Amino acid sequence: AAARPSVAALEGSRRCELCGAAPARVRCGGCRLTYYCDVDHQKADWISIHQQICQLLIPIRTPLPFLLSEKERKHGAEQLLKRQKYLIDLAYGTAREFVLEGKHKEALPAALHALRFSTEVYGSDSLQLVPAYLLLAEASTGVGHFLEASRYLSQAEWIVLTAPDCSAAVEYQLHRGLGLFCAAKGNLEQALYHLANDIYVASSAFGLKSLEASGGYFHMANVFFRQNKTDIANSLYAEVGRNKGHPLYFCQRVLKSRPEMSLLSGEEEADGFVLAAEAQRAEATRVLSTVLDVRERAPKQQPGETAGVLHALAMLYYLARDLPKAREAGRRALHLAKQLPQRESLETVGHLLTLINSCTE
Amino acid sequence: AFVFLPLTVIVLKIHLIKDKDGIDDYLAKNIKGLSKQEAAANRNSYKKNICIDMLRQGYHKSFSELFTLIQKWNALREAAGPGSAIWQRESLEEQPDKLDQLYHFLTGAEAAQRAGHYEEMYDNQLNLAYCFNDPEDKWLSNYFYEQCFNTAQLVKIDGGKREAQAHANMGLICEEQGHVMKAAEHFEAFYQLTEGLTWKDETGHTYNSLACEHLWRIYTLLADKMLENKEHQQAIKTLIKALKMAKEGGDMKMEGEAAYCLSLAYNFAGEQQTALSVSLGKVAETTEYLGEFMKAAENAHLSQSLVDACVLLGNIYNERGKYNEAFEYFSRASEAAKTLNNLPLVEETKTYYGIAKAHKLMVAFNSRIEAEDPVSLKYLLAWKENRSDMCTDPLTVDNIYQ
């Protein structure tokens, strides 16, 4: 669909970019095409996504000049489509980043834009909209807007049900989204049902040992842990940890290789693997934080396992040079390790803390 | 507890419910129909429903195993190609009763495993091995017997009974597949684990006697292969082991057969080398075993075997020059052959008897000629004149060749 000339602009009744309310009296000075209810909405949009797309919106929202030849019109349309798709990816990617960092509020405007642009390009019943809906649901859940999240999920579900040829990737992601939403609401049995579907579809399409399936196992483990079924949960975590593509595997390697020993002795490159890509460390940190959260909220505690998680987190924060967090995690790990019968973990955590503290001097 | 309300009332009431979950809840409670999950389940294949059921209860290992087995079945079918027997059959995923069995016992095994009750895990897996007793499902059954074997190593509370059982089953599978050495290893382990213990199977036989039977059979098979490769000494050693097992097993027929095989092997070995190179020790062993075989054959009324044994023994004594013993055995062979009413066989044994007699005659004759004295000459002439039977010869000749 080509960009429509801004009829509303002509009529003088503009809608807020963020919430859609009219009349929107505040205008962005950069692109001069974007309107908001008030400064707060403008600020929220700016932080989330508008800063990145302000200038990019201009060629999209300005009406096309009247072009003479068929060839020129075609070229113009192609250019427009390219720009719109770029915007979709950018908005989606930005929202995804925010969600991964736990910044659900900031993610929402970007995610909304991703949805809107997708709708413009692909139509309102296209499968291409499902990722955006799922992301919106995740962000809304994170902020606590369960009703909105539920609506987004229903839309996604409807599209998948009515699409004649839905891919396995979309199907398993839908189930994962539904499962995580149920879990957030505390509806654990329902969450397990959806995650079971997630794992089944992912396994059928990508294989039992695939990274996609292992993601499902991970979330399922979290749910079982909350239900106090720790033996099932641990069995599932172990399964996830065996998958070399999953962050949990990375975490286990980090713990086993004990880089703090070689770092203490002065070697820079402790283990090439450990000083791996930043993105990998960031993902590992995120996953471990989730695990830690689940373990801490569980009715029954397993101090040994929790200490291990904190130890790995401390190491990851240290490697990322986030010393305050590293110290905090290390201190908590030490505290738990003191309660355990085996003393070796106490020693290694102690070494790590020494290393961390020596850095601040 | 479901109340069926008229549709109009429901429609009105729904407007009062604000959130979607509340609506779902209300519908589920008040309208007899399918829940969303049930509706989805109707659309799914049986396989998918079973898998989802397994996963949502946390039986992820059962899910993995089932999934992999179905994949294997499909791969086997692909490899066999159209037109093969397996192609005609339905896929494992389309056989609900088999899927149900797999669901029940796989989840049972996983639950037992998590609780550390390995004996229960074994029992569940054994049930699955029994389930798939169609000849076309042999690979599936064998797979579960192998799982049983792995699990049995972990069972401590039954004194090794399951471990023993598992060795026996694995031995049988190896035997079927022609891996005779491996089968022997398993049966030997089965034997060792059951020595001196009173475990019995459904037919009342003790495990140890079963072990003896399996070992007798497998040693005989091994020896067969060795004979094919002309490894005579090895074959004989193995057959001796087989005979030992047969004796322990306590089955007369088994024992008889084992002795017979052994003696045949000796004989066969003897034919390959020249008769003279067979050492005295070996002959003694052969005759000892043949003697035992004869006894066994007599007790079991195996007349043909008795005839064969007697003939063999007679031949051995014949070759060694012990003609009286040879006579004895040949006449016994003849008796046994008569009971079989086998006229050609009777004739045959009589021929052997004749040969032995001729040999004995030769001895006496030669000694007379070599003596070169007038007395001997007189006897020889007397014999030549009336061709009397050597047995009635009044001369008592010391047969120096005896």
TrEMBL record, chain A:
PROSITE patterns: ZF_MYND_1, ZF_MYND_2
Domain of life of the native organism: Eukaryota
InterPro entries, A to Z: TPR-like_helical_dom_sf, Zinc_finger_MYND_domain, Znf_MYND
Keywords noted in UniProt: Metal-binding, Zinc, Zinc-finger
Record bears the keyword Isomerase: no
GO molecular function: zinc ion binding
UniProt protein name: Zinc finger MYND-type containing 12
Record domain MYND-type: where: 16-54
Record's keyword annotation contains Cytoplasm: no
Pfam families, A to Z: zf-MYND
From TrEMBL, chain B:
SUPFAM superfamilies: TPR-like (SSF48452)
Gene3D superfamilies the record matches: Tetratricopeptide repeat domain (1.25.40.10)
GO cellular component terms listed in the entry, alphabetical order: cytoplasm; sperm flagellum
The keyword Ribonucleoprotein is annotated on this UniProt entry: no
GO biological process per UniProt: cilium movement
Pfam families: TPR_8
Keyword Repeat: yes
Cell compartments where the protein resides: Cytoplasm
SMART domains reported in the protein's UniProt record: TPR (SM00028)
TPR repeats: from-to residues: 307-340
Keywords: Cytoplasm, Repeat, TPR repeat
Cited function: Axonemal protein which is implicated in axonemal and/or peri-axonemal structure assembly and regulates flagellum assembly and beating and therefore sperm motility.
Matching PANTHER family: TETRATRICOPEPTIDE REPEAT PROTEIN 29 (PTHR46630:SF1)
Name this polypeptide is given: Tetratricopeptide repeat protein 29
Source organism of this protein record: Calidris pygmaea (Spoon-billed sandpiper)
